[in-house]
Amino acid sequence: MSDLGDLIAPGGVVFDLAGTNKRAVLQTLSARAATLAGRDAAHVTRVILEREALGSTGFGAGTAIPHGRLDDLPGIVTVAAKLATPVDYAALDGLPVDLVVLMLAPTTAGAEPLKALARVSRALRDAALCGKLRGAASAEAFHAVLAGDRRIAA
Fold it and tell me: Which CATH class is domain 10-148?
């Protein structure tokens, strides 16, 4: 089971996101992250798209971890989504993506964001966990799987 509950609050879940392409998905998730962070959605979207232009954050098996850094952000802000329909993401393995975890971190943060990215990456490489996330019937169940709450996620 995953234990990402400290990184992804229930308000950070976007369930059955109906994005038609990578850009639309990233815009929706950036807007949610911006709301949680109290930042401008257009700026957050720009930061995420600029990072994505350096190389796809789709790392395989239908998963992606877009990320970026913002000035004056008090801590890491993370948003997770299950897409209603997988989208072409230019992922490393060429497969479409349907599970996305977007992460914002302060520009001044040291190793903490890298450790958080590594935790999310490890979790999303777990095929059983991804199967449970894809099988979640609600935002609450999706978050419960992410947080490792066996009572709700079952």
Answer: alpha beta
